[in-house]
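Hello,

Our lab assistant flagged a job as stuck in the queue for most of the afternoon. It eventually completed. Since we weren't sure the result was trustworthy after the delay, we are filing this so someone can double-check. Below is the sequence as submitted and the structure that was eventually returned. Let us know if re-running is recommended.
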Amino acid sequence: MTWKTRNTSTSWKRLTACWPSWAEAAALRWSVLYAAGAVVAALTGPAYGYALLGKATGTVAEWTTAGLYGAAALLAYALPRRPDRAWPSRLAWPVVALCLTSGFAFLFSPAHLLAVFLGRNQPPMDWAAWANQAFAVTGAALWARAALAHRRRARGRCGYCGGHEAPAPVARRTRAGLVAVAALVPYATLKTAWALGATVGYTGTGKPGMDPRYTSDLGIRLYEHGVDVTAVLALAGMVLALALTRPWGLALPRLPLLALGWAGAGALAPFGIFLGVLGVLSWTGLTGLGITDHAPWVVVVAYGGFCAYGLALGRATLAFQRSGRRACTRCTGARAGQAMPRPAR
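-- returned structure --
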């Protein structure tokens, strides 16, 4: 490792280690920049991936986005100026949800990119919208850090470690992983049964669970041999949940597991809620909308399981994140100083 690389790595570690000192300012700058981009898009026409409800100049979506994130900038300005109040950090968490809503599609981008490059007849990739959504997810991360730092400060706790020393019990984390695995079993079982030739729960024509117009040649060959690609992805999701909740997962790289865990929880929990509600409404006859070539129970049980998986995965990821917390050097140094006896005069 060269001196320049080593120096850059050290500077990055110092920057990430002192995140409570810059998180609120970063959230403020991000909000101003994102709101300004929405204003430019509203005045000049759809640009930078902001056009959500239409393509006309000054659409409701673009002006609404500018107003919401402008208000978020004002809240970020108030965070460091109201360090002893609880309401700024409470209002900051809805901003995190707002950012995730703006960048929701980015959480599915690995599957989308895989479909674009390996599938057929896929719509062209809107790279401007993709970059915009990635920037929104980055804002969610910055706002979560800012909210956490302010909440700890308001409660009189250490902003760096929160005063947590003991990791979460492994047994508690194991239960969350098992719930996540159980939530995907109906989906993986049903898709595998369809690949093996069964048609239970399928009311359409052709092969259930596979449209040759949009499936890659590799996906078709695997499906003909009884392997559904989405079922394989479900198995990978089960392994991820177990890695977050079993002792052997502690030996794996920590940051990739946290990134995959939070991305999966943020994407699949609301997606499963939408599909589950849609299936219930279709099942009860309250609406004719839904997946027309699937029985309503399939949408509720199999696809609605994404919601339970996302919630359980979020719980497992949070416990995994907390399990690595230790008292920071500031807290350990202060405690060591308090524990040391005073020298005799």
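-- support follow-up --
The delay was a queue issue, not a problem with the job. The result is valid. Residues 183 and 305 are 5 Å apart (CA to CA). The mean pLDDT is 78.
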